[in-house]
Amino acid sequence: MLCLPRFRGLGYSSEFTANMALIAKSLSDKPRQFVELVDGPDDICRLCPHLMATGECALEEQVLVKERDGIVLKMLGVWPGERLSYHELAARLAAVADSSLPKKACIGCRWQNFCDELPLR
Ligand code: SF4
């Protein structure tokens, strides 16, 4: 969710980036569609090479995915299982874009320097 507004085609594999591009385009084309926030692997994780058969993220220990997800959800005021329009989610993301949210949630991410240079879209 935090990465979507800055997605520019980078990702963990060609399948991952193709899937994320499809999702980003769909949300950008139809921002009134509803998004369900889940507590675990989501539609973006679905084609990620780091998603294990157990449903866990192989990078969890390295990049603390659950902790980062928790930071983002708390700062956006949303809960797992909640459904919101992407339009509403994007507005909330934009409202906290200059706060400490990206600093806390993006520390250690391999694309942090790249994203820091980009405007939200
Ligand atoms: S949370 Fe893990 S499985 Fe999901 S997209 Fe990120 S690295 Fe891949």
Protein architecture, described:
The chain is mainly alpha-helical and 121 residues long. It has one domain. It is 44% helix and 5% strand. The protein has 6 helices and 2 strands, in the order H-E-H-H-E-H-H-H. It has helices spanning 14-29, 60-63, 65-76, 86-95, 101-106, 112-116; strands at 34-36, 83-85. Strands 1-2 form a two-stranded antiparallel sheet. The two termini are 13 Å apart. The mean pLDDT is 88. The structure holds iron/sulfur cluster (SF4). Iron/sulfur cluster is lined by residues 41, 44-45, 48, 50-51, 57, 59, 65.
Total strand count, please?
A: 2
**Main sheet characteristics:** 2 strands, antiparallel
What is the helix content? 40-55%
Low-confidence stretches: none
Distance separating the two termini: 13 Å
List bound small molecules. iron/sulfur cluster
Task: Please state the CA-atom Rg, rounded to the nearest Å.
Answer: 14 Å
SSE arrangement, N to C: HEHHEHHH
Strand content: under 5%
The number of helices is 6
What count of domains describes the coordinates? 1
Helix vs. strand class: mainly alpha
The side-by-side strand order for the widest beta sheet comes to 1-2
**Average pLDDT level:** 88
The rough form would be described as globular
